[in-house]
Amino acid sequence: MINDQQHQYGAVSRFFHWFTAILVLWQFAKFFDRINDGEHWVGETLVPYHINIGAFLLVLVIARMIWAFTQLNQRPVNPQAANLWSKLGHISLYGLLTVMPLLGICKMVGNGYGLKVFGCQLVERGAEIAWMAQLGELHSPVAWLLLLAIVGHIVMAVKHHLCGDKQLLRSMV
C-alpha cells in the first residue's frame, strides 16, 4: 500500500516520516560538537555531514509536504488528534523543519563561508552579508524550539496510544 488510507498511512508517508526522524536525530548530534570542541567520536564522525544533511532535509521536507497535500483526503482521521492543537503542532513541525535549513544557509552565506553541499559549491565564499548573518544567528535557538516540538510530538503520540487510541500510533508504524 503506497498511498495513505483511512486506517493507516501508506508506505511513502511512513518512509518520509521515519527517514526525516532519523536524519533530524543525526542533525541533533551537532549539539555534541559543543563538547570538548568536537574532539570526540560524534564530532569527528557525524557532525561533518551537518550541512549536507540539512540541505537534503530541506528537499525531503518539501517533497513530504507535497506528498501529504496529495494524500489529504485519504489520510487516517482521528477525532482525538484532529483538534486545533494537533493541527498547530504538525504545522509547527513542518514550519520548523523548513525554516531550520534556510536559517543554516543564511548563517553560512551571511558569514561569507559560501555554501558547499555534497561536494558542489552552490554559493562561493565571499563578503559577509550582515542581514543574512544576523538572521542565521536564529539557527541554533530555533533548533532548540524544534527539539521541544519533536519531544511534544512524541509525548502526545504516546499519550494517545496509552489513553485508549491504539490505532493512532500503529497507523504510522
Automatic annotation (TrEMBL):
<keyword id="KW-0249">Electron transport</keyword>
<keyword id="KW-0472">Membrane</keyword>
<feature type="transmembrane region" description="Helical">
    <location>
        <begin position="49"/>
        <end position="70"/>
    </location>
</feature>
<dbReference type="GO" id="GO:0005886">
    <property type="term" value="C:plasma membrane"/>
</dbReference>
<dbReference type="GO" id="GO:0046872">
    <property type="term" value="F:metal ion binding"/>
</dbReference>
<comment type="similarity">
    <text>Belongs to the cytochrome b561 family.</text>
</comment>
<keyword id="KW-1133">Transmembrane helix</keyword>
<feature type="domain" description="Cytochrome b561 bacterial/Ni-hydrogenase">
    <location>
        <begin position="9"/>
        <end position="173"/>
    </location>
</feature>
<keyword id="KW-1003">Cell membrane</keyword>
<feature type="transmembrane region" description="Helical">
    <location>
        <begin position="12"/>
        <end position="29"/>
    </location>
</feature>
<dbReference type="Pfam" id="PF01292">
    <property type="entry name" value="Ni_hydr_CYTB"/>
</dbReference>
<dbReference type="GO" id="GO:0020037">
    <property type="term" value="F:heme binding"/>
</dbReference>
<dbReference type="InterPro" id="IPR016174">
    <property type="entry name" value="Di-haem_cyt_TM"/>
</dbReference>
<feature type="transmembrane region" description="Helical">
    <location>
        <begin position="91"/>
        <end position="110"/>
    </location>
</feature>
<dbReference type="InterPro" id="IPR052168">
    <property type="entry name" value="Cytochrome_b561_oxidase"/>
</dbReference>
<dbReference type="GO" id="GO:0022904">
    <property type="term" value="P:respiratory electron transport chain"/>
</dbReference>
<keyword id="KW-0479">Metal-binding</keyword>
<keyword id="KW-0812">Transmembrane</keyword>
<protein>
    <submittedName>
        <fullName>Cytochrome b561</fullName>
    </submittedName>
</protein>
<keyword id="KW-0813">Transport</keyword>
<feature type="transmembrane region" description="Helical">
    <location>
        <begin position="142"/>
        <end position="162"/>
    </location>
</feature>
<keyword id="KW-0349">Heme</keyword>
<dbReference type="InterPro" id="IPR011577">
    <property type="entry name" value="Cyt_b561_bac/Ni-Hgenase"/>
</dbReference>
<dbReference type="GO" id="GO:0009055">
    <property type="term" value="F:electron transfer activity"/>
</dbReference>
<keyword id="KW-0408">Iron</keyword>
